[in-house]
Each structure stands twice: as C-alpha cells, then as structure tokens.
Amino acid sequence: MGILLFRLVPVAILAINLFSFSSATAQCPKGFTPLFNGKDLTGWKGLVGNPKSRAAMSPEELAKAQLEADSRMKAHWRVNDGAIEFDGSKGDNCKNNLCTAKEYGDFELYIDWKIEKAGDSGIYLRGCPQVQIWDTTYEPYRKMENFRGSGGLYNNRIYSRYPLVHADHKLNCWNRFYIRLVGEKVLVKLNGKVVVDNVPLENYWEPGKPLYRLGSIELQNHSSPIRFKNIYIREIPAEEANRILDRMNSDGFVSLFNGKDFTGWKGPIDQYEIKQGNLLCKQGKGGHIYTEKEYGNFVVKLEFKLPPAGNNGLAIRYPGEGNAHKAGMTEIQILDSEHPRYAKLHPTQYHGSVYGLIPAHRGYLRPVGEWNFQTVTVNGSKIKVELNGFTILDGDVSQVKKSKDGEVYPSSKRKKGHFGFAGHNDPVAFRNIAIKELP
Predict the structure, then answer these.
(1) What CATH architecture applies to the domain 242-437?
(2) Which tens digits make up the pLDDT trace of 55-73?
C-alpha cells in the first residue's frame, strides 16, 4: 500500500498543475484582484497612441481619440468561453492593443495565454513593450531568435532581451506568466520557470529616460489570434518594494550604521541624532558626518525619508573637511525636489543629481513622509543613481565641461575618500545604510 500511495502522489500533483492551466477560471491568488471578470471587457479600453503621445494631447484630443480606440477595441476584441480573444485581423500592428483602464506602479501579475501557429503577441508593462509571446517553432521568426522562447524583454537594446530558458508549452496549449515589476526591474516566470531575473525594462518610447512610474498593462495584437484569461494583479506597496529592491542586490554589502550609535562615523556627530534606529540630521543643524574608512569604487544603498522641503546630500569621496561638492568628488542631492521652495533651482540641484555637474531625471521620489530606496554606484569617474528601482542618473563626471558655477570643480577628479551625509538643517532620516567596495 505504501508503494501504491508513493506512485499516486505525483499523479495527483500533476493533475493539480494541469488544472491550473486548463481550467476556465483558476482561483484568484490571495491578495490579488481580478483584472478580467470572465464575462466582458469591464476595466479595459482601447489603446490611444503611447505614453509620450498621450502626454502631448489636450484633454479634448484625448477624449476624442479614446472614443475611436474603444470602437476599434469592440470590433476586434471579445470575450469567448471565459477568455479575452483577439480576432487576428490584419492591419496596423499594436494600434489595436487592449489596455487596462487603470494605471499601475509596482505590481505582480498572473496571466494565462494561448497562441496558434505563427502567433506573435506580448504584454506591455506601464505602456512599454514588452514581455514577448510568440510561436517559438515558426521558421520565419527564427532570425529574430524566437527559438529562445517567450517571456523575454524583446524590445530591450542595452539590457538582456532574451529569456534565460525556453519554457513554452506546445502550440494551442495554455501558458502562464507570473510577472513582477518593481521600478524598472522585471521578473518573469513562464510556466513556473524563471525566464527574466530582475532585468530593467527600457523606455521604448523615450530612450535614455527611465521607465514610466505609472502606466497601463496592455495586451498586444500582431495580426494573429491570441487568447488571455485568469488575469490577476496585486499592487506592491512602497515598503515591500524597498525590501524587494534590497534583496535584488545584497551580496558583498557591509552595514555602515548599526542603528544604535555612531560607531564608525566621524565629523560633527553632535549635529545628528538616532531615533527608532534611524539616523537624522537635527532640525536647524547641519554639517558633514562621514565614515572613518575611505572608499574608492563602491556601491552604496540606503533608505531615506524626506520631511517637507527636506534637504541633505550624500558626500562622495569626501576628504573630511569643506563642502562635499567642492572639496570631495561630489555630493549626490537628497531633496524634496517638488516643493515650491525649490521651483527655480538649477537642473543639477534637484534630487539624485551630481551636484552642479549632472542633472538627474525627476518625478521618481515617493511622497514626502514615505521611505525611498536608493543605490549609488561610483566606479572611476562614472556615477549611477537608482531611485526606487529607476535609473535616474547614469553619467561620467570626467565628460562634464562646465559646472553650474562655471569651471568644473578640481576635486571632482578625487579617486578616494570618505562616504557621508551633508546636512542642511532639515531632519532627513536614513536607515539600512550599506556599502560594497568594487575593484
């Protein structure tokens, strides 16, 4: 009997797995919300242009274009046998994409899909292409390396665009994606296998800019029939997103702050205080506190929380005296950039900027009072700043010809120095401060 039970258990597990891909309505995972009710297209709409073109439209132009897009949607998308179905009509590829009425930031998504011979489709994330879906055996697609499988970020040009493994089921069988997007970092599982492992999704519509902070989820058409069902989403709150981002890059880091005292720090530490395990500049105080140890090339990661109009900075390769941006290599701004007080600053003075030298992209800070997660990579003369999972700056100080004050600061060529904080009278809070030295 024991041998018989041993053989039956795998069969039962197999039946459960098959059911998850063949059932008309899989059970909604705990904490998730259905994006498709299995009956109609409530919560979905036709696609109008792309994020860049929509932003340029007036409200009247957008409303008119939406009516036209919804008309196209009704002509080519329908619900059939509990699934969303595109009819395979030929025409302007992608113009007839179906998109969610709601926009999303960080989220995780389940979605089942099925294609036919020569099928080609994808899932757009925050309006950007795409998590790829296609017939991986279709010979005419071979030059595009379809044999690698579905699930890759096909439109990437800098970061990886291909899946790690081929995990597609046979044609006309249901497949399941699990997709997680935090910042611009994408994790994709296809039929339970990791095919994309936290790779940045590039901004297809505005190359060189970070991915959009908010956007719709789109179901792409490519003039071939495609079906989707069992679509469930869970929005990821900020605190959880920070933990996810921290885990993505954890190897080799050493903590710089123990949450209890100023062990390992120098400078006017009496100008700072520790509250509930967080490091804060005292209200009305300032000055530069810095690590006892000096660093050359490194990655530092931390969380910070801004009060209204809050101002601080990260001292990079700081010598131990003077202002960080004039005496050290530079200062990376920590600032409540959207506060009216700072409406007329120089572009290189806003949050994440290499102060006075390289401006950062704006619009990726969390609301005042929430914790932000930031990573700064310093490698030779190159500096990269990632805020809440978005690359807001990626520049080379050696290529800057002019600072906001005129000449480039001579100290910008420093090769080594302390890491620290440049207080500016505001109680900006820091926690989970860790550093990893690079060769």
Answers:
(1) Sandwich (2.60)
(2) 999 999 999 999 999 999 9
